[in-house]
Design a protein that fits this description.
The protein is of the alpha+beta class. It is 21% helix and 29% strand.
Amino acid sequence: MKHQLTGLDGVYRDLSIETSESFWILFQPSSENGDAPHQDYYFITVDFLGKTTKTRYDSHGKPDKGWDPQLETDIFRSSDNWGIELTIPLKDLKIPFDCSSVWKMNIMYNIPLEEGNTVEGLSRIQAWYPTLKDEKNPNKTGRVSSLEMNFDKYARDAFEKRAGELSGDISALKGISKKEIDFLHKKLTAIGREIELGNLEKIENELDLLDIEIGIAEEKISHNNSPDIPNDGYSLNDVHFINSQDGFAVGAMGLILHTNDGGKTWMNQQKLTDFNLSEIFFVNDNEGWIAGGRIRSAETNELMRHDERGGDGIILHTENGGATWEIQYANRGAYLFGIFFIDNENGWAVGEGGLLIHTTDGGNLWSLLPTTETIKWLNGVYFFDKLNGFIVGESETVLKTNDGGNSWEKINAEADRKFYDFRSFYRDITFIGNKGWIVGQNGTILATRDNGRTWEPQATEFDERVRELMDLRKVCFIDEDNGFAVGGLGTRIMKTDNGGESWSLIRIPNNDQLSGAWFNENGTGFIVGRRSRILETTDNGRNWATVNGSNEDVDLMIFTAHGDDSPIQHGVLMTYLSKIENKDIAAIHIMKDTHSNEYKGEYYNYECDRSHELMGVKTTIHFDEFDNGNSGCRSFHVNLRLWKGYDEIARHMVAAIRAYRPDVILTHEPIYGEYDKPGHKVSGRAGFMAFYNSGEPDQYPELTRLGLKPYQAKKLYTYATEAFPVTYQYEFMFDVPLEGYGETAQEWANRSLRCFQSQGVHFVEHTPLHLVKSYVAVPEEEKSLFDGIE
């Protein structure tokens, strides 16, 4: 436990404040029109010697440890007690222009535990308002009322400080013309005059717009100065047609594919960014938008955010039917997943940490609506008109608005199954008239017949062993009766012809996971997924043809417990094989990591995806059903998932092996689990089982019925340990230069690791391997993992 706290969790936590007797104060100058999670707030600690820590968190949860208010502290002591009187100048706070007379506040008393007593962590907290071990959550506060004063002066001060920060951002821009720099400074000067006049609401909008314009400039500079990474073959997330001939598919690493012949051929469009593009939306043949995000990276621990929030957002816009695209929004705040417009002017986009942004002018200005009252990740959004809409997301989140997003009501819409006691992520939502559907993890489908007031589960009849393989990503209805849902089980998609009263699994010629779907009323449809796969039907799903992407067997499949294991342990190996030898690699990650991402969105998965994509790995898969039972994981459902046994994990592994048909499999060492980590040992043992069982026709017949036919990989490797002596090393790969990139394989792999902010800065390692089993003849000293394989 102590290792966990001082190691991985230490990335997030200032352990020094937990080991000293101290008062903790969290407070928030509250806007009248916003919620607690999406406004600036402050966290201060003071110990009995007067030592303080001071952190400001912005509206995206970003910590600013450079915030340095002029505190005055008066410490008083008695024989058996002590206390403080703390004064904080208003001028040192960011006061919102619509500041309320009621502020949020919590006062906590931290009592360190004696050395060795770490059952409850490093300390215990006595709090004015119960925190439930969530001390830095601005929702876990009481209220301080009757703060009757004129805040306008302080709001103007806050605007002046923000204008100063933006001035510094402009001055730091390198790589754009003097004319562009002068234009931004001119806008900043005009804002300064508005601050003097005191039109505060207008000033906030103008500062937001300037902030976005600076973000766009920064992204253009970053893209121009970054190595040109080909994005052929990366995952596709969404697809949309604007007429019978012109369609678009978007995906990882800024990938945009276009067809002008009805989907027969697809061509790469100009690459504007290496963001992951999540969703594409057109309101007519001309006006369209793409939303996406990118996990942040940093070179040192000191420069990392360490705030458990994942990335930055981007929106691309076209006004000529996708002939050209421009960056319309680039914000250093939060990853975007879903976007929706009701006309040319009014649109909404949602993302991580409960993010909701809104435009009323076609996206010229995107404004934060700090109103969702949640930090759950939001994946899908749908609006009927300017006032009425829905958002869906993490942990069965369904929110409804009837005032355009200024306020939201939480809707009770539970999934019918909670595998291992966890609530599903909801991925997408759509409506036809007053009927609507939501899809999500574990094959979840919900339906409404009353405009979303009540929701009922559908497709409940499918076996649990099938449901666990189905992370549904997209739902598309042609009319009230005919609809499709696609997701994780790439050999099948779901179809209904009676509005969801019943659903059937229909077979398609595909094994890769699926993410997007589009259908029209004439029976033509397209589905997209991993490795740039696009499939087409012209008869409402009865027959399918592959029109883009690879369905070749992969060369190497790496099973690891956690998303950071493979890039740290095998980053150079993957970089060398993918970029030098053009090998196709699939990285499969088995465990959810309770200590790092329980109910905190999927930033850990996105870090993993981004790291692998930079290394050239185009297929990453994450199992959602299992946990590793690390030290410190004490809740019942964690142990339930761990001790359900190896068979369930092995079955998922077999499904992956049969889907991608690798020549070579690499997995954890099953006895020692490297440093005796439970998840590593479980993954190693299940990996051995899966290797030997995947080719057995009598094993897992339900997978065979789903189209995942028995397949036997040719070679199995594990990490070398005392139990499995070294048979293969790849140190020679570290210093091999990558042609055209000016870096070695090691340098490239290390830079690719920098997006793992949840883990802190790591460096790639050399992990010697042991050949456990080979069904092909190999030389005594192997030079390659693929020796013996033609």
